[in-house]
Amino acid sequence: MTPAAVERGERVAVLMSTGLIERIFSARDRSRLRAAGAVRLPAVDAIGLPDLTAIGPETEVVVTGWDSPALAVEILDHAPKLRLIAHTGGSIRAIVPAEVYDRGVAVTTVSAVLADAVAEFTAMAMIAGLRRATLLHERMRRGDDWESLAAEAPGRLLRAQTVGLVGASRVGRAVIGLLAGFGCRVLVSDPFLTPDDASQLGVELVTFHNLLTLSDVVSLHAPVLPETRRMIGAAELARMRDGALLINTARAALLDASAVLNAVRSGRLSAVLDVFDQEPLPPDSPWRHLENAMVTPHIAALTVETLRAQGEAVVDEIERFRAGESLVGEISREMYDRIA
């Protein structure tokens, strides 16, 4: 932060690239953000990336996004007045160190806003995967014979499938709500979900291994923790039914990528993947060339409406913070250890 900026007493530091700021914050919400405190907006370096020097001795609120750098403890040492970190995305652990809680800093995210978009994408992925929509589309584009394509084995009806959800997170619960309209059997594996909660959600609570064995569709909605990292590898894939569909809109680290690639390449399983260990996915990645895999560039949460809702929700939280009200999306220290 420049000396002039410090003198202005800027209290809200926005650590997001110019492009992301423009996508998330409407003109109205930018005005609301400025009204909440003197703002350094946008806070970017010479090449347009988030600039940590925006955080200074007068900073009370830090706003972060998907492209924000990690908030090193050394940086936070320069912000003794910091009291709130408001994240415009869902996952915070790669950006916010746990030490902020020892400093009395509150942390909030808009993960609830993102949940509906990811859940809708997941439902689409289930239907597209079961009906082989992308494969048929590509083969139509390349001119394959109409009658031959129509004569192949038909797709499958979502209503008739057993769907297994790994994790009753916000997204997982939103998916459950959408699946209720289809009438399919829904299994859930989550160590934090009680039988009573499962009953209220209208799902069957099962062990992880039973979920893999019984499900026609397996969709991941778990955080990356030591016990969930690479939770699906060769042994787990072997438990899955022949022809099962695997969907991952959560985190790439939940999968052993090479094991999943081998299973999909063999034709025994199909997959819809939105997240990868290496992003962007290289042009020569084998995932780009598998007929029974639908791949997307980490966009499950991205809709025009969702992006604007993220900005609005973050400004709402900052206004609540200023008014001394409870935060809607607050992440407590206890929650921090078991979220994405």
TrEMBL record:
Span of domain D-isomer specific 2-hydroxyacid dehydrogenase NAD-binding: 124-300
Top-level taxon in the UniProt lineage: Bacteria
Domain D-isomer specific 2-hydroxyacid dehydrogenase catalytic: 68-328
Family matches, as Gene3D superfamilies: NAD(P)-binding Rossmann-like Domain (3.40.50.720)
Alphabetical keyword list: NAD, Oxidoreductase
Pfam families: 2-Hacid_dh, 2-Hacid_dh_C
InterPro entries cross-referenced by the UniProt entry: D-2-hydroxyacid_DH (IPR050857), D-isomer_2_OHA_DH_cat_dom (IPR006139), D-isomer_DH_CS (IPR029753), D-isomer_DH_NAD-bd (IPR006140), NAD(P)-bd_dom_sf (IPR036291)
GO MF annotations in UniProt: NAD binding; oxidoreductase activity, acting on the CH-OH group of donors, NAD or NADP as acceptor
Family: Belongs to the D-isomer specific 2-hydroxyacid dehydrogenase family.
Protein name, UniProt field: Hydroxyacid dehydrogenase
Organism listed in the record: Ruania alkalisoli
